[in-house]
Design brief:
The protein has about 140 residues and is an alpha+beta fold. The protein has helices spanning about 20-25, 35-40, 80-90, 95-105, 115-130, and strands at about 10, 45-55, 65-70, 75-80. The model is unreliable at about 1-5 (pLDDT under 50).
């Protein structure tokens, strides 16, 4: 995916805002490769880390589930809570993301400092631009 200038746009996955979004993607059982996917999500490079905590959207009584951060593999970005939701609720992920992870044998590609800095810059730019303004 690219913006109007041909720059690659980071793919977003798992930025759930409501319990309903999690429930809609919930599966009754884990996928056969779920453990590998959870490890991949947990191993992502941290783009942004905050001092705030995420709480389980479906069952707030559980309390804190993880410190809020945004992770990447250089192509996709996801919140740190995605690994939790996948492990607990077996949430369905986009097929394109699954193929992407599988193509690297479920290992997050290493990003050198320059590559990670470029991803951080893209992420910060995309967060400051209204997505409606992008022609994607």
């Amino acid at each position: 995916m690219a913006d109007e200038k041909g720059n690659s746009v980071l793919r977003r996955v798992g930025f759930y805002a409501t319990a309903e979004q999690v429930r809609e993607l919930r599966r009754p059982v884990a996928a056969s490769d779920e453990d590998a996917i959870v490890r991949y999500l947990e191993d992502g490079e941290t783009l942004v880390a905050t001092g705030s905590w995420d709480v389980d959207l479906v069952d707030p009584d559980i309390g804190r589930i993880c410190q809020h951060s945004v992770c990447t593999d250089g192509v996709w970005v996801w919140p740190s809570s995605l690994a939790y939701y996948l492990g607990r609720y077996h949430t369905k992920l986009p097929d394109e993301f699954l193929r992407h992870m599988g193509s690297s044998e479920w290992k997050v590609p290493a990003l050198d400092e320059a590559a990670l800095e470029a991803v951080v810059d893209r992420f910060m730019l995309e967060e400051s631009v209204d997505p409606e303004e992008l022609d994607v």
